[in-house]
Design a protein that fits this description.
Blueprint (H helix, E strand, L loop, with lengths): L4 H24 L5 E3 H9 L11 E5 H14 L5 E4 L12 E5 L3 E4 L11 E11 L3 H15 L9 H14 L1 H13 L8 E4 L10 E3 H4 L3 E5 L2 E5 L3 H9 L8 H7 L3 E5 L4 H21 L1
Parallel strand pairs: 2-6
Antiparallel strand pairs: 1-2, 3-4, 4-6, 5-11, 6-7, 7-8, 9-10
Length: about 290
C-alpha cells in the first residue's frame, strides 16, 4: 500500500511518541545516543521529519547499545513497547535492534511472511570502533558484510548476495550472526579513533566517521521536542549525502520509501494476529464447504 500524506504524517507522529520515550528512558539511565541518517538530516534541514520520511534511525556506541538492551529488559515499558533484537525471535531477520510500539500494527511488504512481532518502530544501530591495521580492517569489512547477510534485502552487491545465500544455507543464519557479531563487537569505540555504523546496508566507507564527528550528542529542535544528533553534523551529513540541503527529485524520494503491507495505528499487533487467524479460519470453512 502507498501511504497518503495524511497517513504518513500520522505515522511520523507515532514514531515521534516512540523517540520521546527512548530519549526520556536514555536520560534516566545515563545512555547516550544519536538520531542519524535521514532523521538527522530532517532535524537540520526541516527541524523535524523530512516531509516524505516514514521511519527513524538512531545509533549508540556498543557499550550504550548493550546498556540500553539490559536496562529496557529490566525496567522498560513492555505493555506498550517491544525490544526486538537478534536471538529473541527465531524468524527475526536483522542483525540490529528495533523498538516497536505493540499498541499498533505495521507490517512491511518485503517481510510480511516473517513470524515476528510487528508494530511501528525505530531502528537502533550499534556503533563500533575500526582498527587502522589493514588486515584487521579488511577482516572487519568481511564480518560486517556477512552480518548484513542476515537480511539479504540490504546487500547491494550481487556477488556478495549470492555468496551470502549459500553460506546461510550451509551454516545457518543464527550461527552466521553470532560469529560475525562476536568479531565485530570486540572493537570498542573507546579504543579507536574511527567509528562505524555496524548494520546499515550502505557501504563500509559511507558508514565510517572519525569519533569526533559523533562527539558529545548535540541536542537540536525536532518537531516539538529536542533530540540529539552528531556534534559535527555538517561533516556527518556531507559525508553521507553530499549537498544535503538540496531537495531530491520525486524519483529519488520514491526509491527511499518503505512499502507497508498493512498499517493500523490504533490496532494492537496481538489483535491483528487474532483477526488474521479468524479470517483464515473463515476462509478454510468456506473452502471446505465448496
Amino acid at each position: 500500500m502507498r501511504l497518503s500524506k495524511e497517513e504518513k504524517r500520522s505515522l511520523q507522529l507515532k514514531i515521534l511518541e516512540i523517540i520521546k520515550y527512548i530519549d526520556a528512558f536514555c536520560n534516566e539511565n545515563n545512555i547516550e545516543y544519536y538520531i542519524i541518517y535521514g532523521s538527522c538530516l530532517g532535524a537540520v534541514r526541516h527541524k523535524g521529519f523530512i516531509p516524505w520520511d516514514d521511519d527513524m534511525d538512531i545509533a549508540m556506541t556498543e557499550d550504550n547499545y548493550f546498556k540500553f538492551i539490559k536496562a529496557f529488559e529490566q525496567s522498560g515499558n513492555k505493555e506498550k513497547y517491544y525490544l526486538q533484537r537478534p536471538g529473541k525471535e527465531k524468524d527475526y531477520y536483522l542483525s540490529f535492534s528495533k523498538l516497536r510500539d505493540i499498541t499498533t500494527t505495521l507490517v512491511e511488504e518485503n517481510n510480511k511472511d516473517k513470524n515476528i512481532t510487528y508494530g511501528v518502530y525505530i531502528d537502533i544501530f550499534p556503533l563500533i570502533g575500526v582498527p587502522k591495521n589493514k588486515i584487521k580492517r579488511n577482516i572487519l569489512k568481511i564480518n560486517r558484510a556477512f552480518l548484513l547477510s542476515a537480511n539479504i534485502n540490504v546487500i547491494n552487491n550481487k556477488f556478495l548476495k549470492s555468496i551470502s545465500k549459500i553460506i546461510i544455507k550451509l551454516i545457518g543464519k543464527e550461527r552466521v550472526i553470532k560469529y560475525c557479531q562476536k568479531n565485530c563487537f570486540k572493537y570498542k569505540t573507546k579504543d579507536y579513533d574511527e567509528w562505524l555504523s555496524l548494520c546499515d546496508g550502505d557501504g563500509f566507507n559511507l558508514n565510517l566517521n572519525m569519533k569526533e564527528v559523533y562527539g558529545k550528542p548535540l541536542y537540536v529542535e525536532f518537531e516539538n521536542t529536542m533530540l540529539p544528533i552528531p556534534r559535527k553534523y555538517d561533516e556527518y551529513l556531507t559525508h553521507i549525502y553530499g549537498d544535503y540541503m538540496k531537495i531530491p527529485s520525486e524519483k529519488d524520494i520514491e526509491k527511499k520509501e518503505h512499502t507497508p503491507y498493512y498499517m493500523n495505528l490504533n490496532l494492537p499487533y496481538k489483535e491483528y494476529i487474532k483477526l488474521k487467524k479468524s479470517k483464515k479460519d473463515m476462509e478454510n470453512i468456506y473452502n471446505d464447504k465448496n
